[in-house]
């Protein structure tokens, strides 16, 4: 691996990996995608070589040369600091706070409640039926999206995207969460601003190329 | 309220509010604590005036003059950008990435699974018995701490604190999570590095003053 080369350990349907794929595309950074299959054989994330890269056994991991970078939001901030143009973060402390807070509504308070390991715990340890597991997922997406919709539509900083007229880290988090909402049948009708921003994002090549169905490890017909 | 004054909406036992209390103390910033009682009358966070400040109905919220700031990690980064000395974040992009990633192991992948609204959902919607709810809390703390312990003890950047010899945003997240672990009876014996860092932090006045039991809204004898 070259000193400056970028390798992203990803899974096509992981929404945390999807965020970083978007960020890499927005920056125009050449990179290699290394698929980690989260379901096959009990999950490749739980075995070497991947588990040596991340003791949390979660994707994504990004290698930049020999640097091992974990946690999707921390990776995106690193990409933005290392390659500042085009920016993923706004210019002022106030606006950066807002973008980080919007991203964290999703990346702290929605997604971790609904990811694979949590749903596996419910299925295997508590024997929660599938219908209730899916209702749980929808519940937390709806709670998060209601707050996010209010926050976005009340604020003059919201533009074509979450913050103004260029995509930011907040949009990198929003679009994968809307994808998840679709998988679980969340009614998106109440979230007009979220839908509008999601559509504006997906019209961009950087977002489109990062979609789950456009990944090398996506099953045929997905 | 003066233009530059700081007001923190907090609850003594909220670990997300505890993080920001530490950060404010480390920066030496004068501030007013406004208690929001998360249990009384169904939770003051669900009613105006607090719910007008945060549609997520979660603490903490920080007011800086008339700016409304939400999400504990985003608030801490704002404090650090606005008052850079002493720093909460290291000097290089690589080290900042590491500190953010350590913070996010806790603030994304442990704490949101265990906070009040999730435990209330289990109790009220799924009728999960208390013993199982508490086992759930311990499970995710243990999963997170195992990964964190490995990450910390394997890395030469770890010093007296999570990153080197001064407290950072990662320590502001770690100490409240160790407090939570104590509340729920997690056996801390396996986490030698976490215990050592937690003790180093709590020896500092900034951390000590932020402890739940030292808050104005802590019940007598807590």
Automatic annotation (TrEMBL), chains A, B:
Alphabetic keyword roster: Isomerase
Supply one GO CC term from the record. Answer: cytoplasm
Q: Which residues are in the GST C-terminal domain? A: 92-220
Transmembrane annotation, as ranges: none
- Can you tell which superkingdom this protein's organism belongs to? Bacteria
InterPro entries documented for this protein: Glutathione-S-Trfase_C-like, Glutathione-S-Trfase_C_sf, Glutathione_S-Trfase, Glutathione_S-Trfase_N, GST_Zeta, GST_Zeta_C, GST_Zeta_N, Thioredoxin-like_sf
Q: Which residues form the GST N-terminal domain?
A: 4-87
Q: Which GO terms describe its molecular function?
A: glutathione transferase activity; maleylacetoacetate isomerase activity
Q: Name one Pfam family in it.
A: GST_N_2
Signal peptide position in this chain? none
GO process terms (BP): glutathione metabolic process; L-phenylalanine catabolic process
Family named by the database record: Belongs to the GST superfamily. Zeta family.
Name this protein carries in UniProt: Maleylacetoacetate isomerase
């Amino acid at each position: 691996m070259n000193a400056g080369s970028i390798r992203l350990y990803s899974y096509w349907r992981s929404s945390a990996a999807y965020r970083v794929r978007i960020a890499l595309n927005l920056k125009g950074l050449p990179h290699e995608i290394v698929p980690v299959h989260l379901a096959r054989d009990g999950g490749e994330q739980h075995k070497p070589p991947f588990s040596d890269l991340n003791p949390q056994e979660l994707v994504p991991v990004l290698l930049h040369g020999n640097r091992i970078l974990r946690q999707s939001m921390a990776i995106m901030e690193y990409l933005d600091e290392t390659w500042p143009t085009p920016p993923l973060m706004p210019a002022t402390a106030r606006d950066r706070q807002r973008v980080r807070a919007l991203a964290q509504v999703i990346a702290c308070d929605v997604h971790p409640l609904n990811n694979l390991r949590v749903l596996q715990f419910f299925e295997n340890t508590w024997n929660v039926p599938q219908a209730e597991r899916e209702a749980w997922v929808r519940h937390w997406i709806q709670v998060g999206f209601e707050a996010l919709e209010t926050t976005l539509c009340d604020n003059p900083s919201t533009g074509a995207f979450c913050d103004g007229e260029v995509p930011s880290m907040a949009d990198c988090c929003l679009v994968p969460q809307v994808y998840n909402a679709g998988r679980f049948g969340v009614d998106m009708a109440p979230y007009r601003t979220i839908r509008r921003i999601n559509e504006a994002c997906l019209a961009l090549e950087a977002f489109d190329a990062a979609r789950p169905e456009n990944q090398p490890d996506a099953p045929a017909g997905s």
